[in-house]
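Record format v2
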Amino acid sequence: MNPSAKKILVLLSVIGLALAGCGKNKATPPAPGEAKVFKIAVIPKGTTHEFWKSIHAGALQAAREQGVEILWKGPQKEDDRAQQITVVEDVISRGVAGIVLAPLDDRALCRPVQDAMREKIPVIIIDSGLQGKDYISFVATDNYQGGVLAAKRMGELLQGQGRIFLIRYQEGSASTTERERGFLETVQKEFPGFRLLVKDQYAGSTTESAYQLAENLIGRFPDVEGIFCPNESSTFGTLRALQESQLAGKVKFVGFDSSPKLVQALRDGHLHGLVLQNPVKMGYLGVTEMVQHLRGQKIPELVDTGVYLATKENMDTAEIKALLTPDLSILD
Amino acid sequence: MKRKSKLRALINLLAPFLGLILVLVIFSSIPDVQSRFLRAANLKSVATQSVIVALGALGMTLIIISGGIDLSAASNIALSSVVTAYAINAGLPPLLAIVLGMATGGLVGFINGSLITGLRLVPFIITLGMMGIARGVAKWMAGNQKIDAPLTWVNELMAKSPQPSWLLLAPGVWLMIFLAVATAVLLRYTVFGRHVFAIGSNEATARLCGVRTKRAKIIIYSLAGLFCGLSGVMEFSRLTVGDPTVAVGLELDIIAAVVIGGGSLSGGEGSILGSMIGVFIMSFLRNGCTMMGWPNYIQEIIIGVIIVAAVSLDQIRHRRSA
């Protein structure tokens, strides 16, 4: 017992010395070169969805063109507000030239963003809005317009008559709430022939939770004729449920965002429309604008990256194809 | 012989710190972040980030020592934060809102304890049920979305730069330190504290020795609930909104902290100091990984490895001393 105890003591003293050494290092100024290459933190809402990978690809592309470095870091749990606050605080501690942030909450992220601006770290908001004006630019999709586009497509598919579902995404998510609002208001205004069987059910943040909800809803209303889902995970979950219950293709289905599986479904006629954003452009512009700002150029306060509708007919045109299957080879 | 046992005592005292020291040494020797990692500003933000899990871990330590488990801790935190936000939004004075938030947590804990002793079911089942119930009630109360409550001094409790500035750390951090010390004293120097250990070591024996196990258990779960309630208040303070979907899966972080700190899931063992070290090991790991810009999966793998390593080291130590 005694020798091993000694070993532990030796180990402890070594660690103590190492710590003392580190204390000294703290006083030395940060390495030169930090000033030359900007390091920009890009903070998404999550890291596993296809959408965020596209943003990552766009951000990387911009970084290569501009000769800057990217620190890509999302909350450990997809869509966890508290953890995203932690990530923002940590990159402030680390010290970066600028932050490009897709806030999970329009209010909860205000304080950390204010902290960043106070520490002279400029912040550009992408994808979803943030209350207040403590940032230098907002680069996003007009989400309301996306919902309007989906409602019009649904109206066209069903000739404005029928029983439909609006499956919501998650409580308190600003961008999807806007899409849902755009869809709902357009349906109520322009298509009085639609009957909304469901309009207050939330799919939750995962494909699994969306799948279960859709399964239950289809079980309860088997005569549904049209469904709209406001993001990728809810669209895919619902698609799986439709395919399982042999209803895929029969029920008119409009989704939002893209992934390989959804593209296949569009080709198979299981999906009748996908509203698309341009996440690659969003990531690209977020970083490019940040670099321009850091170099002293003036940048616009608001940039709309546009919404597009993909259907079976137009999915092979060059423009839509680039949005449906964005080139992510840069991430490898 | 005596010398040996003294040395042994010293090692046992320092052993829990080893993991934490190791994490600190690793990150402060990576050139990329070393100039930033040990800065006061970063230590401050890590301390603030730890408060929510730490408060939950105080109660969880009591429960785990008594041989139980609380899977509803994170849902309870979310529910309490929603209640606090709801109360402030309804125009109640902030202090009353805090009391209501904590009382909600305490009530959930009390129900847990009463059901466990009353129905004679294992804590795992009762708290698993409560996990869903509390989460559902939180969503229902918040009307299926987050509650935007007006800003009050409650939101200053977790501000990284506190007012007045002589506080140095956020009031929530001071509260965490104070409660950790108080709980450690409660556990070590009071009759109730010894009863907690006795129940966890052997409940039947404890009962035969005259410990009122049922009553003690209800108190343990209620106390833990109160801690979760306070943690919920802190969560609201940090988010500035009442979010019913917050802290999903946080109960596992809390349990992991207790286990890394030497708590035994079969009861009878654990310490507040150990649990707090567990909390800080995980906070510093998260912080360091983010500062390095490492992807999340690396972080998750590291934390998983640490849990297994910490517990097996603990086991080896125990086998030797046995």
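The CA atoms of residues 86 and 267 of chain A lie 41 Å apart.
DSSP finds eleven helices and twelve strands in chain A.
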